Amino acid sequence: MIGSRPILRPREIDVARLIAVGLTSKQIARKLGISPLTVRKHRENAMRNLNVHSLAELIDATRRLGFVNTPSEPYRTTNG
To answer: In its keyword annotation, does this UniProt entry include Transcription regulation (predicted)?
Structure first.
């Protein structure tokens, strides 16, 4: 952690945001141009770094940390 904010890599944030807005792993993979296996690894890393154990907790943490403000917020990648 840096201060009170957990360290997540940009792609982990991207994947967590897309999960939070309701996309499946296959949809996330297509949107980001990566494989579903890579999506899974980013999700697992984000969950470990946030110390959460379910997708519901990941979504809650993603929103609580300000990565997604509302369920209907449009998706933007971390690099613009």
So the answer is: yes
